[in-house]
Amino acid sequence: MLSGLDDVAWDELDHAYGEATDVPGLLRDLAGGDDDALGELFGTIWHQGTVYEATAYAVPFLVELLDAPGTDTTGLLTLLAAIAQGTSYAEVHQDYEPASIRDSPELSARIERELEWTRAARKAVAEGAPTYLRLLTSAPEEEVRSHAAYTLRACVEGTDPAATTILHRIEAEESPVVRAALILASGGLETATPPLITGWLADPAAPPRLAAALVAVHLATGSSVPLPDGVAEVLERDTPLSLDALSTLPWSALGDDPLRWVIEQLDDQWDLRIRLLRGWMGHDSADVRKGAVFAAEHPILIWRPAAAELGPALAARLSDPDRDVRYWAASLLADSGHAAVTATDELWALVTREPVRHNEPAAFALAALCRLHDPRAATYLAERLAADPVDLSGLDAAITAIGPWADACRAPLLRLVPLAPAGNTRIGLIDALGRLYAGTDNPAAEIVPLLRQECATHPHIATRVLGDLGPDAVDALPDLYPMLTHDEPFVRVNAVRAIWRIGGDPAPLLPVLREIIETGGRAERVHALELLPEFGPAALALSDLLPPLFGADDDWLSVRSAIAYWHLTGDPATVVPALLPHLRTGPHGRAALRCLADIGPAAGAAIPVLREEAAEERHGPTGGGSPTDGDEEDWPTACARTLALIDVAPVN
Known about the structure:
Layout: E1 14-15, E2 18-19, H1 23-31, H2 35-44, E3 46-47, E4 50-51, H3 55-65, H4 73-84, H5 89-93, H6 99-102, H7 105-126, H8 129-138, H9 142-155, H10 161-172, H11 176-188, H12 194-200, H13 206-220, H14 231-241, H15 243-248, H16 258-264, H17 270-281, H18 286-295, H19 297-302, H20 305-316, H21 323-334, H22 344-353, H23 361-371, H24 375-386, H25 396-399, H26 410-416, H27 424-437, H28 448-457, H29 459-469, H30 477-480, H31 489-502, H32 510-519, H33 522-535, H34 555-569, H35 572-579, H36 587-599, H37 607-614, H38 635-646
Antiparallel strand pairs: 1-2, 3-4
């Protein structure tokens, strides 16, 4: 066994961590029964979904080791399937490359070279099909047969003879778990047909019926093939019955989260996802309810309507007898933005019923109420902050949501800030106090002396909050001007912002910003660029710094410099072309979109791109921002709203 291993020039091949000279030793260790060697190969010749130059050369030896006594056969089959589905690292990560590299011939050449590796690796795995077919038909262990089906699905095409064998094995296989694996494999090979699926849906065991339902959904997605009758009922009934089987199938890479895996297989069937999650949340089994609430995180994160659709079901789970169910329900409601408003009474009941402590369900419930500006939460927070001794455990997320709505917390915070431990605890309280005062009629005289004292010990937050107070912080100017020469660039920018907002002269401020934009680090430069729009034309003298940054490798520098240029010059002809490359989902796109909306009809050059983005399927990724940060629109809706502000027909 492993003859010819030393004939490969491993020192001339690379894997994820450089020269592949360690591969022969790992393969020999694997042949000797060392399971750790398999883990090492999962990190080298295959690494987080990508394959490498050495991968195809190692595959024939992996196939050979499937017959070695004492080796982890299912682990080897899983590795081979992963290799067959491997991708190019450069292709997957190209959007994260600097702009100057992203569209370069060099990157294109690298991607093509790596794609050659992926094709060679897949071909090498496919050449092992006779071994996988033998294991599929003769291995005594159910798990080995299931994994053999999975590996075949990963490396052969629907026209290959192996695909026909998989179909025939479904009828002959006695194990319901293996039948389920074969049905899933058949769907992946596109060899399943509606009549076959109808028959599989009538299987006497739950796992094959569930697999057939998933295949039916897969075939119906994006096509004219209708879902067979009863698919939704099968999924709802048979998924909980198949939890043990799902945890053994190689498709269920999530292991302990099979319900989430099922939900993620349903592609764009959003109504079906919501129906299933609602039903499972009311299941008799605590494990099913827990799995369902955890699985709800996926649609809530990527499809904005899901939070509102699932809100009532999550609210009902706040009184669940299982602590983990309550935990996940409260956590998701805290991240659901305004959609959680229908659950306020249930959230409050949880706060009053259980201790609000770190990482406990009631702490998430309180955070959700604070993000919804519920007055009961303000009263509760005020009482906790006024306690002696004070106990801040479990209040971190709630404190970050304090604002003018929580005026009851003002006096306790004023008392507490000087007493709080220096560092993050005090910074968080100062931040909360600043939000509570900014833009209100509260007398700034109460807070300005405290902030002036903190300028020496916590200058980052003190200078920022003084800027938030604006003209009401005029007494702090003597403390702020010395901050213009502070060692920390962030503090210098915050001091510039505070002095400008209070009403200072821009003359001494602009040189500070110029120096940081020209010589500062990436984060400091972005911070300064984000401030420039507040100056507007008053900072016109800095406009020469901005166009050279439009094509910066760093997307934040690029988009923020273009936005700043618009506010300084009012020149849409220069700015709009610089923003167009950023009109894609993500925080850069959201910032560019807001600027285009501000420009209005003069941003007409963006209309074709916005029309294309607005026409995208709305049941897709949200595109930056979360329901708790104010961006509750999905990306296509936000593009459509901006388009309406720009594409205005002229009045005759």
